[in-house]
């Protein structure tokens, strides 16, 4: 069965079968990444534009690498070097790029809903690479892939997402995806960093990380988003670290199998101590590698659905 939608805008409402299909397809592409020649032909003749209106290291490189591994032609776009700085609208920019016969658009934007809008004004497949504080679906898919790789399943696992939940598109997409796949999800952080009515997302809410750590399989640690003014919502970074920072000492109460994740970029010794980020519990760099396979799977499944 093909994916239900011709775009990937978010995991809210995505059927379990579609998530399963993406994760299973990524397993085949993960194997390609281990080969001496890491390139396969399925997207030969397809052109993909990566439109990044907001900074990115991992997601941008990961999509670009995935596209090249699948033999697509790749266009890079950054708002600062484009005619957006001369006042061109998002719609006009996208329609001009599409006029050059682009098949797919990958977009990151600071405005929630920007990829959804784009999907209504152009014919190309649109993939959301992060829209404001709304969703970051490929991040959550690569997180789920990494958890499944470690535990062999998602169903029945307990995942806690700790930190700045209210500004986090990663948290939202993970909550939607993990719950669909049968995992239990908790969130933890100061009340000032929780969205209003967060319980309505179907999660348990905690404010004391030490109460949660002994009972979980996976801890997904979020970055304090200073660029979105999160720093104003608690007294100091030192205090945040004292109450919520993930340290070796805190992990003494954890199960031996606890898995530590972080979407990056990391603020070392703020939300996570450097020794935990580099410890045997951490799968942070596996997440990055798996991200290429997930993005190959998404691109492939959308391209072959058309
Ligand atoms: N995880 C993530 O989205 O990282 P970038 O902002 O570097 O793309």
What does the model show?
- The protein is an alpha/beta fold.
- The chain has helices spanning 16-32, 58-69, 90-99, 114-121, 137-151, 169-180, 209-212, 237-244, 248-251, 274-277, 284-305; strands at residues 47-52, 73-78, 104-109, 125-131, 158-162, 184-188, 204-206, 218-221, 259-261.
- Helix 2 (58-69) links the parallel strand 1 (47-52) and strand 2.
- The longest helix is centred in the C-terminal third of the chain and has 22 residues, at 284-305.
- Bound molecules: phosphoric acid mono(formamide)ester.
Q: Which tags fit this structure?
A:
38% helix, 11 helices, 306 residues
Number of strands: 9
Fraction of helical residues: 25-40%
Strand order in space, largest sheet: 7-6-5-8-9
| Heteromolecules bound | phosphoric acid mono(formamide)ester
Let me know the average pLDDT.
95
The stretches of 5 or more residues where confidence is low (pLDDT under 50) are none
